[in-house]
Design goal:
This protein is α/β, with parallel strands linked by helices. The protein folds into two domains: 67 residues, no CATH class; 194 residues, 3-Layer(aba) Sandwich (Alpha/beta knot). The strands form three sheets. A seven-stranded parallel sheet has the order 5-4-3-8-6-9-7, with helices on both faces. β3, α4 and β4 form a beta-alpha-beta unit. α4 runs parallel beside α5 and α4 runs parallel beside α8. The two termini are 24 Å apart. The C terminus is likely disordered.
């Protein structure tokens, strides 16, 4: 199937439309189709809408407070993705950046673990994560990667200004190329025998530390949390830069931006091919990213 010109054309068109294409085992497709008859291709509707990175950056520029974005590099477990989104939304982050490749999609499993957080936290789907990190840096963001071999500890990091926290995969951590695009690598000191933390737990600790030094620093006793400020959808009756200001109980669940909002449909494909074909597909993927 990989060598068929028609298939490659369909794959190119799907990726250009923002669809997440993922190779999985035959058993996985059987699981998501509940044992129904299939021919190796399954289509899943995303559980939440996404937007492009430029729209997210523009929306965060008018919030009146330093933006906090999360970027995920190779987080393929939908449960980890859902848990990260839930923690990020609860602690006041302003958005999440997800790459099209090597990433879990916004499936029902991720939405269930997120417990409603996907309705409030904007998610930007990008073709190439490293180019997106460079664009964020050009927009004034500092990129901080979470890595066990980081040169500074969590308590020593400067969390002022617009930030992007980058979390790596569950087993390999940050890729080498992504590390090079980070301004700083940060580690979480551990005392026990367990050598590392789950990706979602490590991210939650870092987001909490950012919140503790910013909006949480003046809260004591039973004092309420300050109103949440996030980009929101724009209506015809209000300017595009108007943010949502108010508590989560007051704000409507319309927290993504109006322009360029799209709902990609992740495709799960079962294909078996020799190593040469796998290498050819990687080159093909990169050509698509460059053309986009």
């Amino acid at each position: 199937m990989r060598s068929a010109a028609k298939f490659l054309q369909l794959l190119r068109k799907a990726k250009a439309s923002g669809v997440l294409v993922e190779e999985v085992t035959w058993a996985r497709i059987g699981q998501i189709t509940s044992g129904s008859v299939h021919q190796g291709i399954a289509l899943q509707t995303a559980a939440a809408e996404t937007l492009d990175l430029d729209t997210l950056i523009d929306g965060c520029s008018d919030l009146g407070e330093p933006a906090l974005l999360l970027a995920l590099d190779g987080v393929t477990d939908p449960h980890n993705l859902g848990a990260i989104v839930r923690s990020a939304e609860a602690m006041g982050a302003h958005g999440v950046v997800l790459p099209q490749r090597r990433s879990a999609g916004l499936t029902g499993s991720a939405a269930k673990v997120a417990a409603g957080a996907l309705e409030h936290l904007p998610v930007a789907r990008v073709v190439n994560l490293n180019r997106s990190l460079e664009k964020l840096k050009d927009s004034g963001y500092r990129v901080i990667g979470l890595a066990s071999e980081g040169d500074v500890t969590l308590t020593d990091v400067d969390f002022d200004g617009p930030l992007v926290l980058v979390t790596g995969s569950e087993d390999q951590g940050l890729s080498l190329l992504t590390r090079r695009h980070c301004d700083q690598l940060v580690r979480i000191p551990l005392r026990g025998i367990t050598p590392s933390l789950n990706a979602s737990v490590a991210t939650a600790l870092c987001v909490y530390e950012v919140a503790r030094r910013n909006w949480m620093k003046d809260i004591h006793g039973q004092a309420p949390s300050p109103p949440i400020v996030r980009p929101r959808r724009v209506t015809e009756d209000e300017p595009e830069s108007t943010p949502v200001v108010g508590s989560e109980s007051e704000a409507k669940p319309e927290t993504t931006l109006e322009t360029a909002v799209k709902k990609p449909d992740p495709i799960e494909i079962n294909l078996s091919a020799p190593t040469e074909d796998q290498a050819a597909e990687i080159l093909f993927d990169e050509s698509i990213q460059l053309s986009n």
